[in-house]
Amino acid sequence: MNAPLPVDVLRQHLIDPEICIRCNTCEETCPVDAITHDSNNYVVDPDICNGCMACVPPCPTGSIDNWRLMVRSEAYSVQEQLGWEELPKEKSLPTPAVESDVLAPAADAALPASAPGVAATFTPAGASVPPWSAAHPYVNLYTHKTPMTANVVGNYRVTGADTESDIHHIVLDFGELPFPVLEGQSIGILPPGLDAQGRPHHARQYSLASPRDGERAGYNNLSLTVKRVTEDHGGAAAHGVCSNYLCDLAKNDTVQVIGPFGHTFLMPNHPRANLIMICTGTGSAPMRAMTERYRRRIDTGENGKLMLFFGARTERELPYFGPLMKLPRDFIDINLALSREAGQPKRYVQDLIRDRAEQVCALLADRNTCIYVCGLKGMEVGVLDALRDVTMQSGQDWSILHDVLRREGRLHFETY
Ligand code: NAP
Q1: Among 210, 232, 331, 348, fewest CB within 10 Å belongs to which?
Q2: Using CA atoms, how far apart are residues 397 and 411, in angstroms rounded to an integer?
Q3: What residues have CB less than 8 Å from 287, skipping those under 6 apart?
Q4: Which CB contacts under 8 angstroms, 24+ apart, belong to 157-165?
Q5: Residue ID of nearest Cα to ligand 1 atom 47
C-alpha cells in the first residue's frame, strides 16, 4: 500500500551549444524533423524526438550526443534550449522515478533502428563511418571557450578578377601549438564582433584545402577555400559575416580558430586506394587536400587512381584552375563541368559522370575505391542518380552497391 506512483521519465536528447558548430547536419539528417534552430542554437524537440540516433554519427563535433534523464513533465522545452549558452548541469531524479521508470520511447535510444517502437528506418545517402584504413582524426581540441589563435600568412584570390565569384585561398599558421588535421576535416572560425542579439558570433565551418602535413609540407599551417558571400540563396543582397571577414584579412592578422572537426569524410590510408572526387565551387577544398596528399607521394608508387569531377560556372570561376590544369594527366583524370561558359552547352558534374560511365564503373568495381562529394546541396540527388544510372547500365544492382559503399565507408557527402 502507498507504493510511490510511477513517474514518467524521459531520456532527453540535447545539443551542446558550446561545441555545436551550427553546420545543420543534424537538422538535415533527422528523419522525424525533431531538430530545429534559430540564430543562436540548434535544439531537439522532446515531444518529437524518438531517440532513433540517426543524427548522431554524422555530427562532426559530437555536440549532438548529449542526454539527460528527466521527469517528462519537466523536460527542457525548445524555447528554453534556444536561449542556452551552455548545457544545464545533470539533475537528480526523484527516487521513485528511478525505481519505477516508465520509459519513454526516447529511452530506447540504444536500440537498433529496427527495434519495435522506434520510428521508420532512416538510411542516409552517404556513409557514417570512415574508410577502414583512414588515419585517426583528432576532434574538438580547441573549443568556443578555448580557441586557438592563428596567424594569417597568405590570402589570395583563386578566381578570375573580372568574375562575380570572389574565392580566396587563405593560409593560417599555428606557430608552435599543435593543430593536427587530416584531409576531409574542417575547422571553425570565430568572426569578431556581435550578432544582432548582441551575442558573440558563433563559429563558421570551413573544410581544409591542405593535406595533413601542412599547406607547405612540414609547416604547422593549413589552408581554406572561402567564397565571399554577397547574396543569399535567393539572389537577394546579403553580407556573409565570416566569409567577408576572412576574404578581407591581411597578412599577419590573427584569427580565432576552433576544431578540428569531422571523423568520417576521411581518405583511405592504404596503398593503391582510388578516389572519385565530385565537387562544385568551393566544395573543391577537401578535393584539393586529398589530391595534394597524393601528389606529394607521387614517387612512392603507393597511389591508386584519382578521378575528379569539378563543376563551376566558367573556367575563370573555377577555383585553382591554373594549378589544377598543370597536374600530370596520368596522375589525375580531370573532368570539368562548366555551366555558364560562353558558346558551350551547360554541363553539370552528373552529366560528366554519365559521359565517363565506363571508367566510373571500372573504379566502382574495385573495393579500393572511395567516393567523395562536396559542394552545393542540390548536386546530391543528381550525383546519386548518375551513379545509379551508370552502375545499372553496366548490369549491376545500384541498391546493393550503394549499401556496400555506405557500410564500408566508401561514399561520403558534404553538401550545404
Ligand atoms: P556555385 O558557383 O554557385 O556553383 C558551382 C557550380 O555548380 C555551378 O556550375 C552551378 O551551376 C553548379 N550547380 C548548381 N546546381 C547544381 C546541381 N543541382 N547539380 C550540380 N551542379 C550544380 O558554387 P559555390 O558558390 O562555390 O558553392 C559551393 C558550395 O559548397 C556552397 O554551398 C558551400 O557552402 C559548399 N561548401 C564549401 C566548403 C568550403 O570549405 N569552402 C566546404 C563544403 C561545402 P549554375 O549555377 O550555373 O546552375
Answers
A1: 232
A2: 16
A3: 277, 279, 308, 310, 372, 374
A4: 158/225, 158/319, 158/320, 158/321, 159/316, 159/317, 159/318, 159/319, 159/321, 160/314, 160/316, 160/317, 162/316, 163/313, 163/314, 163/316, 163/317, 164/317, 165/227, 165/281, 165/312, 165/313, 165/317, 165/319
A5: 339
Confidence of residue 116 (pLDDT cuts 50, 70, 90): very low
Residues annotated as part of the active site: 206-207, 374, 414, 416
Amino acid identity for residue 382 in this structure: G
Q: What is the pLDDT of residue 233?
A: 80
Q: Is the CB of 348 under 6 A from ligand 1?
A: yes
Ligand 1 geometric centre to CA of 374 (Å): 9
Instruction: Provide the pLDDT for residue 8.
Output: 85
Q: How many CA atoms lie within 13 A of 47 on its CB side?
A: 5
The pTM score is 0.86
247 lines ligand 1 (CB under 6 A): no
All three cell numbers of 415: 553538401
What's the rounded mean pLDDT across residues 367-393? 97
Residue 414 beta carbon below 6 angstroms from any ligand 1 atom: yes
Centroid of ligand 1 to alpha carbon of 381 (angstroms): 14
Tell me the per-residue pLDDT of 283-308, one tens digit each, with 9 for 90 and over: 999 999 999 999 999 999 999 999 99
**284-142-177 Cα angle (round to 5):** 90
| 31: preceding bond cis by omega (within 30 degrees) | no
Cα(218)–Cα(216) distance, integer angstroms = 6
The span from the CA of 143 to the CA of 139, in Å, is 10
Q: How far is the CA of 61 from the centre of ligand 1 (A)?
A: 24
How far, in Å, CA of 62 to CA of 42, rounded?
13
Helix then strand then coil, in percent of the chain rounded to 5, is 25, 25, 55
Instruction: Please tell me the distance from the alpha carbon of residue 319 to that of residue 282, in angstroms, as a whole number.
Output: 7
